[in-house]
Protein 1
Amino acid sequence: MEKTLLDLIAPLLLAAVPAIIALLVRPAWAQRAAGIGLAAALFNVFISAPANILPFGQSLVYDPLTKLFWLLILGAALAAVVLTPRAACASELPANEYYFLLPISAVGLMAMLAAGDLIGVFIALEVVSLPLYALAAARRTAAGAEAGYKYFLLGSFGAALTVLGIAFFYGSVGSALITSAAAIAGLTAHQAAASAGFLLIMAGFAFKAALVPFHMWVPDVYEGSPSPVGAFMASAVKAGAVLVLFRLFVAADLPLYYKVFWWVAALTMAAGNIAALPQTGVKRMLAYSSVAHAGYLLTGFMGGKAAFPAVYFYLAVYAAATIGAFSLVAILEKEEKGVTLDGLRGLAAADPAKAALMAVFVLSLAGIPPLAGFFGKFWLFAQAVRGGSPGLVVIAVLASAVSLYYYLSIMTAMYAGKGGASDAPRARTPFTLWLLGAFVLFGGLAADLFLLPAARALPFLP
Amino acid sequence: MMIGPDLLNIAIYLPLAAGALIALLPRAKEHLSGPLALAASLLAFIPALALYLGFDPALPGMQFAQDLPWLSALGARYAIGLDGVSLLMFILTAFLGPIAVLSSFEAVKEHRRFYYASLLALQTGMLGVFAALDLLLFYVFWEAMLIPMYFIIGIWGGQRRIYASVKFFIYTMAGSLLMLAAILWLYFGHQAKTGVYTFALGAYGNAAAGGTGMLLFLAFALAFAIKVPLWPFHTWLPDAHVEAPTAGSIILAGVLLKMGVYGFIRIAVPFFPEAAMAAGWPIAALGAFGVIYGSLTAWAQGDIKKLVAYSSVAHLGIVMVGVLVLEPAAVGGAVLQMVNHGLSTGALFLCVGMLYERRHTRLMADYGGIAKVMPAFAAVFMIVTLSSIGLPGLNGFIGEFLILFGTFKVWPCLALVSLGGVILSAVYMLGMYQKVFFGPVTNPANKDLPDLKVREWLCVLPLLALIVWIGVYPNFFLRRIDAAVNDYIRLAGGPRPAVTLAQEGK
């Protein structure tokens, strides 16, 4: 059967239309509408075969690579929506708007990852960002306003860099296709402008992925915005940004970029992990840890194109653990400051199920076997060794050792401490959290399920 | 059922499965968690024993081996099997499991389900380390074990448990991460040479030489040396031992430390024989120094548990000398001594725990004249003490004698230094025994201590039986090691040439 344009954009519509419906129905129904839409889109992507049509020039490409991207984004967005606690919508999030904005942002991410040219990527980036600006500022408090403001100002700055970069790039290469980045190395005239321009394009996404030096906003925004929004930003949005960065990075494949990313990776890991050490707020700690994880991912970039399966698997595992941890924080937090380490003290005695899940997520982030995070990290660092950057791997390994300290402080608070959490009301532990926990627990032992399809999609990388 | 890989898998995973079951017990049935854990660990001992008896000592190489695809994208395989050395460690682990469980019945009152689940998960991790024949699988078991141990020290430990557990975790992890980097280097180096991605242990015999080999050897050696622990990487051990609950100490001393030595035998030395040949003496010298250092430090302790902890540094130091000297008698002795140390130090911690449960102090000064109050306990403690010192007729003598005998031919100087440590061990152990058990009962709190209970007898009797058995008839154990020891020495490029005292170290 001939594929049509409708087949191509069906997942986008399936996610977007229920989101619009979520605006119109009673608040109690909004979550269901958004969730059903995302689940339908996920299912549609899962069963659909990649179509070989290129509408609108190459603004949308649906190849096996796109399919994997979409599965990851939709999975993360769906988990974030399903795990949003009812209570959050009662107190700080306007339900209709929230369940509209979040899926729309996810649709933007899908378009961003399917775009074959830079203009498409940029437009999609704006579709991602605008709903997020509103979501970040959802709390009507000083901290909420600060989060919204910071995210908006710095996000606009990043987007402006991207546009500027596109102008440079288009001006010197004469094409806005991502694949044409491969031409930079062969340019005789304007090579400097083209390579600098392409680097600027990546800067815009480095902001979303929270790479040093574009990471300053992360702790304030993650802490100031509602926890479910933080979960979405730290998982789906970061995954989308890292994947775009990876596509751009391997499309250009310039030795210069390897050097730049080497340093960015090293600094990101160092800054994220060191800043996380003294934190006592769990959300701030997770925020800095998410900065550090962007650095680990960049370490994998050193393996070039062939590193894709590792990057993809790591993103999936990281996203699952991050959504899980943030959702637990969302469930446990009593006031808007979020949960502190003191607040977690004695959680294991008061609520063993939640403590065990938190332990699984945190240990996976720390990269302890047999949890999936270990296999992700292992394979990621392996790429860097293969790519000839063992020095960066040594830095990454040392950074991981440092990170143990703060991840263990969460564990210690939950298991060895007394008080704090023991008087907390026991909320139900959502089933989805158990699913995420099972994935993080056993995902590493079944890593083939991710690595093999990703390896098959390799030829579709630019 | 045939004695084969299936039985091996059952022995490894039965504790974990039982642990998961116990963790899921309803709160009202919490009192069942201890008996269930005991039943599971006893049940898991049966296949381990069957494997031990079914092992053919005449065959070299791995037995009960299994090799299944696991992570095909990485070339990692699920490969397990046992040779003589791992067999002994395996049976030791399975043997100490039920004792550790039984020793916790009265000591552990809080979160019992989680405690026994952790203890059983730990058991699976340790058994897996000794059975793994794939580097990635080995690493996964090696690290996975940290989590339950961290919980056991951190939740059910003493006053400074949090400090001790975090220190234990970070020390071990830091070493392991370096090992991970070295594994990756090897893995890609092997791929560049042969075009095959593999983690099979067998593929990496003599994997690298020269400067690279030395660097990689040192990365592995550091990770294992921290675990052993070799002086000066031992500082986590006294903290962890003192703070851990009795069962944690038994497992730590009995099995965990052996994993470091096992790492040298299975990985560090066979992978980099050239580097091991060159760096063997300095590392063994650290071990020999550790014998003296550990003994002197133990001598100075007023806390019985700390004394036993430092004595472990000394005992493991001499084992390291035996492993690195690459002389058949010494290596065989070292492997046997690992078992001996597991039995006698495990028993010592058990006895210290029994004292502590009665009086809630571990200071020698608080005791005195206990032999009058608890005569049976005093007798048990005496046998265990003598075993630890290495009295002929008990197990410790055989191991230490073989090590010193073998080492003297090759490194006479180190052998003499180690011998000094062995003599010192008699000084501090008997000194401790005298302070605790002899003399008048000065402290009125010690007047009415009850003697050993049935449960406690059940804990110590199997240990005593083995202590005597190995001392009288070590061949039952030694003959299973021989083939593996010869394999090891061959892979390591040994044996080393014999030298005289004057030539050593030149």
Protein 2
Amino acid sequence: MTVSDVRTDLGAEEVVERTPWPAAILGLIARYPLGAAGALVVVAMIFAAVFADVIAPYDPEANAYEYMFTAPGGQYWLGADDFGRDIFSRIIYGARTALFVGFVAAFVGATGGLVLGVASAYFGGWFDLIIQRVMDVIMAFPLIILALAVISVLGPGIDKVIIAITIPFIPQCARVVRSSALAIREIPYIDAARACGFSHARIILRHMVPNVMAPFLIMITAFVGQAILLEATLSYLGLGVQEPVPAWGLMLKSGAEEYAESAPWIPIFPGIAISLAVFGFNLFGDALRDALDPKLRAQ
Amino acid sequence: MSVQQALPPGGPPRGSAETIQKGDVLLDVRDLKMYFPVTEGIVFRRTVAVVKAVDGISFQIRKGETLGLVGESGCGKTTTGRCILQLERPTSGEIIFEGQNLNDLDARALRPLRRKIQVIFQDPYSSLNPRMKTGDIVAEPMYVHGIEPDAKARERRVEELFSVCGLSVKMIDRYPHEMSGGQRQRVGIARALSLNPEFIICDEAVSALDVSIQAQVINLLEDLREEFGLTYLFIAHDLSVVRHLCHRVAVMYLGKMVELADCDELYDNPLHPYTRALLAAVPVPDPAIEAKREHQTVKGEVPSPMNPPSGCVFHPRCPLAVESCGRKIPEFREVKPGHWVACTET
């Protein structure tokens, strides 16, 4: 067979079929029912955060002293707190705070870890050794202790909370990404890129990073849940978001301390919101991990 | 370990002698050594052993020539290729390409030369970035080296390369996983050609393909050689493929070169016992003859390159070995014009 023969019979080509997307989504729901439930919570939360102005019946920061401690009912669906503020509206706006902190901290932390992890695997040697030992030092502290330490240095506030939550995420992501990147580094297309004389930055960003996206995405979803919980914890301890900004941890704090018995709706509903959000993101993250893992997908 | 300091000049290439002029050396490898240290300890690394993947080999490749490099798995043929590509920095030796020793150049100085030396890998499944469209895979080297700075012109050149390599232009927008193994290997070839190289290392470039596709790709490689005046180092373990494609053949065993000769000379008149055993292992495409044929197999296993045998590395398995083989490293000598062998007993 000569080359010209070969050229001609390449016209007829099998067409790769793609499933239409509504069917693909239904298929995913059938395969990962828990993940779909998690996704529902995530979507509902994002919806609440984006359209908080429209959904919330009251101003979340407006005090109404004549309605203090109103029990849940027709006027205040989830009751009113010790300043007469509508708890439902505060939870809706609280989703905005939680998601903002969650997404920014998760994205920045995971991206920092991604770049460090891939660079560490790519360069290897002393560079890898030093980066990994620094990561070990950061990881030696429990998440909450490290966040507390950062807050006590920087002071409270929503921007400081994000920094405090981001720092412990970086080594977690860097670890996972590095192990994937080490495997990818040995694949011949990286050798091909080196043989073509590409720069280190190009090889890392164009050839390695896109191929470690699966663990990166999984880390991000896991981090959002963790970050929401951590933000609530710091706010509960009075080190996070400050009054009167609506934040779930803060609402829980003011309610749980004094009114757990006399007005239980004040702590209960923010508590449910925190649990549901973290649960939703974790379920979604787990399903995403399963869906992106080819070994599990085959079963 | 300077037994191979004398340089094998190699015989006149088969077939197209008029196109390959004597003395027009493109690549000159001299006493190349690649030792990989085996280390222990995390912070304070100490070398506990050395793997001698390539242990002092020398050869030359002329412009327009195809040199076959054969040997069994682990004999160092791929490492030799990686050293020439500077994917590994050799322990010692010289790799002279166009008058420059590649081992002396730093990454920056090497960059312009990388254009001229390209590689085609064994596995078409892992040698293409799965996240990039095949057209981008072929276009990227041209963009980086500024060969076609204009996007439109680059696109045209990619289309041209696709059709040269026997790929339909429609496939430019495909991802590698949407293609067959043979098609992907053609993309790999198109990528190698995109930089207008002079020298291509084919590292088992057809071993992963099934036999009918192998024939197509081999014919493509031959056509490209003539069309673009390419020079190949063809690393393989399939001796029938090598015989078809190569002008000269070098045989490696355990990091050493044991025999180097013109293709026909090597196949018709193998001198080294290892080459003979290797050739005897090639199956005959006739079951009747194959069944009757006397099989001369090499006894034993390949020794560890961490602790190679003394003297001639092949002596523990050699049918011709005499007592002195275990002590004296055989010289790589020219027994006939263009026929080099590292054995004292033939």
